[in-house]
Amino acid sequence: MLPHLLLTTGVLGTLLPLASSAQVAPASSRFYVGVGANLLSNLPFLDRGIVPSSFGPSLMVGLPFTPRWALQVGFSYHGKREMIANPNSAVEATVRTKYFLVPALLRYTVTEPANPVQFDLLGGATLVHAKGRTTFSPPSNNESTLSDTRFNLTLGPAVRAAISSHLDLTVNGLVSMRVDEVYNFSDRFFLNTSLGLNYKFG
């Protein structure tokens, strides 16, 4: 009887930890999505020697494949409208510009993944598409439309603070650099900072 009891206890002692680990998904398997707001400065495609800035909404989806490594892909939209008046003329120009950004970034968590506040390093590439249109009042034949698409190298830090087991407050500070042609400083570098919320599934 005693050997049978000991055998049963040993089997249960082996199976219970396995059952427990099967019921609790590891943090690295949590698919996550995010929403937030972006601020761009030194926007690309602008060769007038000024430092513009633009706010816009952003979306993001990510998938961790280890406790420290994850891949995330985002999308943000920025629109800008400028009125340009000439004091020596009655003609007024309106410049409308739209920017679409798609960053594909690797995320490496520097701190322990279980910490409530985590420090990350982000790096990858950003696809930037710009569309611009210039119109005049009164109407003129000099109205123009432009479109340009570029790839940028993107690097920067990020901080995540856990609000709950599924929700994180995030702050990113990214620098993007054009990797093909360079015209001037404002065209070569631009900053992309964001504040958002991530929701983790699982």
TrEMBL record:
Highest taxon in the source lineage: Bacteria
Pfam family, one: OMP_b-brl
Keyword Signal belongs to the record: yes
Signal sequence residues: 1-22
Keywords linked to the UniProt accession: Signal
InterPro entries given in the database record: Beta-barrel_OMP, OMP/PagP_B-barrel
Every Outer membrane protein beta-barrel domain range: 15-201
The keyword Signal is annotated on this UniProt entry: yes
Protein name, as recorded: Outer membrane beta-barrel protein
Organism: Hymenobacter bucti
Taxonomic lineage from the root: Bacteria, Pseudomonadati, Bacteroidota, Cytophagia, Cytophagales
